[in-house]
Design a protein that fits this description.
Bound molecules: adenosine-5'-triphosphate
CATH superfamily of the largest domain: P-loop containing nucleotide triphosphate hydrolases
InterPro entries: AAA+_ATPase (IPR003593), ABC_transporter-like_ATP-bd (IPR003439), ABC_transporter-like_CS (IPR017871), P-loop_NTPase (IPR027417)
Number of strands: 10
GO molecular function: ATP binding; ATP hydrolysis activity
Distance between the termini: 15 Å
Family: Belongs to the ABC transporter superfamily.
Oligomer: single chain
Order of helices and strands: EEEHEEEHHHEHEHEE
Protein name: ABC-2 type transport system ATP-binding protein
Pfam family, one: ABC_tran
Shape: globular
CATH topology of the largest domain: Rossmann fold
């Protein structure tokens, strides 16, 4: 693909103690695309995502976002939405209140935008139930709303459709394709080959912390 990549990983490796977790990862990812990451449990998808969003640092190599190097020019990508494992939502607050607390960190969106994001993932923004009463699927939807509410340029989602019923999966697929059409750079890890193939422009296959295959999907939903 021509043009400057939005997110680049250059020979990235990660070692924790003696264990080699990621080895020589190269990525060149663009805006307006969805990238799917597939691999067995423990193949390194989550660790790679942590690294790309600045939560951990590479042992070797570098990650650049929009031309800036993580850990040198910037600590975190300037505009990123992340869903990795279970977000630390507070049990005693509603979904809206949880997102409002998080929105107060950056202060770039108002209540209306929070409610709109909650609605986009198929939840009721005015639901008075506390987070502890949410089903697993509702928690997952709220996690996605949290990741997209500030309209970040880079969206990193680890298993976004986990725990969702088939309606939920369809809703989230549509949300992700709309975000792609808006020019976001979207990374998704999933075990579901069919879902990943449907959404993605390119697939990265991971095995033992390495990218063992990388291919573009023809005739995707773009
Ligand atoms: N904090 C840690 N310290 C040391 N090793 C870790 C740590 N976290 C994960 N690992 C190891 O890193 C490897 C990659 O794990 P990772 O969670 O990235 O895999 P994954 O592809 O996301 O798996 P899954 O599909 O189960 O989510 C595994 O071998 C795991 O045991």
């Amino acid at each position: 693909m021509t043009g400057t990549a939005f997110l680049e990983a250059n020979h990235v490796s990660k070692q924790i103690k003696k264990e080699q977790i990621l080895t020589d990862i190269d990525l060149s990812l663009h805006k307006g695309k969805i990238y799917g990451f597939r691999g067995k449990n423990g193949s390194g998808k989550t660790m790679l995502f942590r690294l790309l969003c600045g939560l951990i640092r590479a042992s070797k190599g570098s990650v650049n976002v929009d031309g800036k190097t993580l850990g040198e020019d910037i600590s975190f990508p300037p505009s990123v939405g992340v869903l990795i494992e279970y977000p630390g939502f507070l049990n005693g607050y509603t979904g809206f209140k949880n997102l409002k607390l998080l929105a107060e960190i950056n202060k770039i969106i108002d209540d209306e935008k929070i409610k709109q994001s909650i609605g986009m993932v198929g939840l009721d923004p005015d639901d008075k139930r506390k987070y502890r009463k949410y089903s697993l699927g509702m928690k997952q939807r709220l996690g996605i709303a949290q990741a997209i509410m500030e309209e970040p340029e880079l969206i990193i989602l680890d298993e976004p459709t986990n725990a969702l019923d088939s309606d939920g999966v369809e809703e989230i697929k549509k949300v992700l394709l709309d975000l792609k059409a808006d020019g976001k750079c979207i990374l998704i890890a999933s075990h579901d080959k069919e879902e990943l193939d449907y959404l993605s422009d390119e697939i990265f296959m991971m095995e033992n912390g390495k990218i063992v295959d990388h291919y573009a999907l023809e005739g995707d939903s773009a």
